[in-house]
Write a structure and sequence with these properties.
There is one protein chain. The protein has a domain of about 55 residues: Orthogonal Bundle (Arc Repressor Mutant, subunit A). The radius of gyration is 15 Å and the shape is globular. Helices cover about 50% and strands about 15% of the residues. By secondary structure, the chain is of the alpha+beta class.
Length: about 110
C-alpha cells in the first residue's frame, strides 16, 4: 500500500480505466517543455498562450501544440475571457508531481 496525502491507497483497488487515464496524463507531462509549462502554472497560475510562449522563449505554434496535448489529456483546463484563453492546472496535484520528480537525485 502506498500513502498519498492523508489517504492510504492500495494499487490493486484502482480501476483499469483510472490507471490508463493516469498513465496518459503522465505521458503528456513527460516532455521538458510541458514540464516547464506546468512550472509556470503551479500555485494556481493562469496564463495565455502568448504569455507562456514569451516566458519560455519558444514559438507560439509550439506552445499551442504543447498546451493542446496537456489539455487533451486532462492535465490543463482553459477558460475564455474576452479575446484571451487562460490555461491553468486542472488539479493542483500536478505541481506536486513535478516538485517530487525535481527532488529526485539524478544518477
Amino acid at each position: 500500500m502506498e500513502k498519498i496525502g492523508a489517504k492510504v491507497m492500495n494499487i490493486q483497488e484502482l480501476e483499469i480505466e483510472k490507471l490508463e487515464s493516469v498513465a496518459n496524463m503522465l505521458k503528456a507531462i513527460a516532455h521538458p517543455m510541458r514540464i516547464a509549462i506546468l512550472g509556470l502554472l503551479e500555485n494556481g497560475g493562469k496564463l495565455t498562450v502568448s504569455e507562456i510562449h514569451q516566458k519560455l522563449g519558444i514559438e507560439q505554434s509550439s506552445t499551442s501544440h504543447h498546451l493542446g496535448i496537456l489539455k487533451d489529456k486532462g492535465v490543463l483546463c482553459s477558460k475564455r475571457e474576452g479575446k484571451n484563453t487562460f490555461y491553468s492546472l486542472r488539479h493542483e496535484n500536478f505541481a506536486k508531481i513535478i516538485e517530487c520528480v525535481g527532488n529526485c537525485p539524478l544518477h
